[in-house]
Write a structure and sequence with these properties.
Layout (H helix, E strand, L loop, with lengths): L9 E7 L6 H9 L6 E7 L6 H11 L3 E5 L5 H9 L6 E4 L5 E2 L3 H12 L3 E9 L5 E2 L8 E3 L2 H10 L22 E4 H6 L13 H11 L4 E12 L13 H18 L8 H19 L5 H12 L2 H9 L7 H11 L3 H10 L8
């Protein structure tokens, strides 16, 4: 007798490290999914708390749970360990301090199937432990893109920190691998994997850029199904004084990816856009930090005098930036500390890191 084994509709990969306080909320949101045919892959990245035991307990309670215990290697490599065992028709990722709506994956998989999508991207809501929350807003309709030229263009938008390129196209962007579902066959066929965030920041963007190159049809849904916890202890939070240098390493890698995938030289402007946007964001974080004014000025002058920053500022068409960011960039290029300091602090310019 031949027994047919049904492939999971979607594999949800959850990298886990030092989140025992939040893990149960995350996993319970998966257990409550209205779509029952799911595969839950918990990747314990050598977590130092009770998370490894919690993962094993979840697996004993629900046979849809797979647990991978591995040596600590960071978020990107933990996701890769999950990809190595994922069997779902679709694949997605969920950070272990976040959670999703109960009907999230039923809606998303059905819509992807109905439209034969290789990727479906959606929105998220943000919340804090103190109850503060912000709801994503986007007034565009559900949209599908099947032109290879369109998809390759959208791939470049990943690195646009200002959205200025999107003013006419009205294409919502986003680089998080958690706010998308991916066709598993493409990931497996081309062995798409994450780089280490310890080597290249924004590893999600690199993964998505590679996936776009191999996609034939993608969709954007303006609805929010994902709840992102603004966690002060997460990797993306906190003051990192060397982050502009890390952005330089990342930018050079992105330039090699852009040129290596058949784009022309002028498209490298997107990589420099990311770098300068990151520089503005990090500068803002330093200015609002607890460092003394003298320490802030010393850091600022050193960073803005860096040869790479000056070269990027000279190459980039700064005149095309929104005026507030253009003014800030001009002050940074000319190393005008007090000008930039009061511009960012007193004017409360909204400049976010990519």
């Amino acid at each position: 007798m031949i027994i047919e084994v049904k492939m999971p509709y979607i594999s949800i990969i959850v990298p886990i490290y030092n989140v025992e306080k939040y893990l149960d909320q995350c996993i319970q949101s998966l257990f409550r999914q209205t779509l029952r045919n799911i595969e839950i892959i918990l990747v314990d990245d050598e977590s130092p708390d009770t998370c490894p035991q919690m993962c094993d307990d979840y697996a004993r309670k629900d046979d849809r749970v797979k647990v991978v215990h591995k040596k600590n290697g960071g978020l990107g490599y933990a996701r890769n360990s999950g990809l190595a065992v994922a069997q779902g028709e679709y694949i997605t990722f969920l950070d272990s301090d976040d959670y999703v709506d109960d009907d999230a994956y039923e809606i998303l998989c059905s819509l992807a199937d109905e439209n034969q999508l290789d990727m479906l991207r959606f929105k998220c809501n943000r919340f804090r432990d103190n109850g503060e929350a912000s709801v994503a807003r986007y007034d565009a309709p559900f949209s599908v893109y099947s032109s290879k030229e369109e998809i390759r263009k959208i791939a470049l938008y990943l690195f646009d920190s200002t959205d200025r390129y999107l003013s006419n196209d009205k294409i919502p962007t986003g680089g998080s691998s958690c706010m998308a579902i991916y066709r598993g066959a493409i990931i497996n066929r081309y062995n798409i994997r994450f780089v280490s965030e310890r080597e290249y920041i924004s590893e999600d963007y690199i993964f998505n850029f590679q996936f776009y190159q191999l996609s034939c049809k993608i969709g954007y849904l303006p609805n929010s199904y994902y709840h992102y916890r603004v966690n002060p202890n997460s990797l993306t939070r906190g003051l990192q004084l060397d982050k502009i240098h890390k952005a330089e390493i990342y930018t050079n890698y992105i330039i090699s990816l852009i040129l290596g995938n058949g784009y022309n030289e002028k498209n490298t402007v997107f990589a420099f856009n990311y770098y300068l946007g990151m520089a503005r964001g990090v500068t803002k974080n330093v200015f609002v930090s607890s460092l003394s004014l003298l320490e802030k000025r010393k850091w600022f002058l050193k960073q803005m005098s860096d040869a790479y920053f000056q070269e990027a500022s000279a190459k980039y068409p700064v005149a095309t930036l929104p005026w507030k960011q253009r003014l800030c960039q001009w002050g940074m290029k000319h190393r005008l500390f007090f000008f930039c300091y009061f511009l960012l602090i007193l004017s409360l310019i909204h400049i976010s890191e990519p």
